[in-house]
Amino acid sequence: MSGERIRDAIAKVLRRIAPDVSLDDVGPEDNLQETLEIDSFDYLNLLIGLNEELGISVPESDYAKVATLGGLTRYFTARLEEA
Amino acid sequence: MGEFRMPSLGANMEAGTLLLWKVAPGDRVTRGQVIAEVATDKGDIEVEVFEDGVVDRILVDPGADVPVGTPLAIIRSEGAPAAKPVEAKKAPSPPPTPAEARPREAAAPPAAREAERQRRVSPLARKLAAEMGVDLSTLTGTGPGGAIQKEDVERAAAEKAAKPAPSDFHARMRRAIAASMARANREIPHYYLEAKIDMSRALAWLEERNREAPIQERILPVVLLVKAVARALKDVPELNGFWLDDRHQPQEKIHVGFAVSLRGGGLVAPAIHDTDAKSLQELMVHIGDLIQRARAGRLRSSEMADATITVTNLGDLGVETVYGVINPPQVALVGFGRIAERPWAENGLLGVRPVLTATLSADHRATDGRRGAQLLDALRRHLQEPESL
Description:
The complex is a heterodimer of chains A (83) and B (389). With 83 residues, chain A is mainly alpha-helical. Chain A has 4 helices and no strands.
């Protein structure tokens, strides 16, 4: 799956969780939570939504790897290639 | 025969606008059922009825702005004779916005309501609509036979988000917060206490617990904090309650108000009813639901009115320490900053631990520093035994 499709999945889930925020405001290495002003509940819901969309569950020990948009995209790309 | 009145949803609320009725005369109602929606300075609120019975009369029409305490409807006991009809209080013309723009669910005749119930909606679309605050009756389905699908709900939610908020809503909310906080600072002699809490055990326990659980059942650290506050209030009940009628009124029930920041500014602190009786998993689900409903303007009147203490957590934003302003008539607020690694000396050894700064803002009319210190100590103690939370 391409990075673009993963980004689309992230945008789709985010629209559900925080309809007023946009990924257009986020640079690849910006911290997602800080930039989008979403709280820890929103962030967990983002990961749950991506789990439902892409079938990949992010363990808590990997949270540091998925803190940015770029990190999240790279992480899911790698995990999907492994699958 | 009981009167269903415009509720007071905060110390500074003077009036509210009735938005819609969810019942009609003759409908049976049960205690806790949402039967109306009202607009307040802190958003749209679903109002529950506090007795079983039958709706006898509607006294106030949607759109009317009425003072707190105004009878809105008459609820009679089942089997009691109906009262003579009287004309409902009419809305002023033109009625206030945004109430006018909302769908009038209860205004629809019974046949229309039945049609609404029978509308073809996929289960996923219905679930999404509930989560996103989308009114299904406003949608046109694009699925087979006109069924409403997930995509229809998502499109409506996106359009709703794109619309500019009512121009004066945030200004009204800021005024409501200003009034409440100015009163708190003017009338409440605050004292502040702070404690550093070693979170090693709590986080290690949580990590282990979450490792075993599917992602949908993970618990966030703030849930432990809320439960630990509830447990600490069992130990030190003086901090759980109100200052009303010039006297301290501790409350037996523990309803922690959880501060939720709203997108676009402002905040509300709805009550988590019986916080101490809920499991961590129940609290996780409940708080997630409260946050969603707070942001969608679907909180209930009891949630807005019943909190016996407030918890505010600004740790997500990197804040170290929170010195909060008490939400009157409550007598205390507990604040949490972020959990950060810090040097920690214990038994003569220096190490690095995840450390939380917990603060207490308390009303000196109701309690003294000693009680406050006992609460923070109880909080620390409960967080050292996460398995018993």
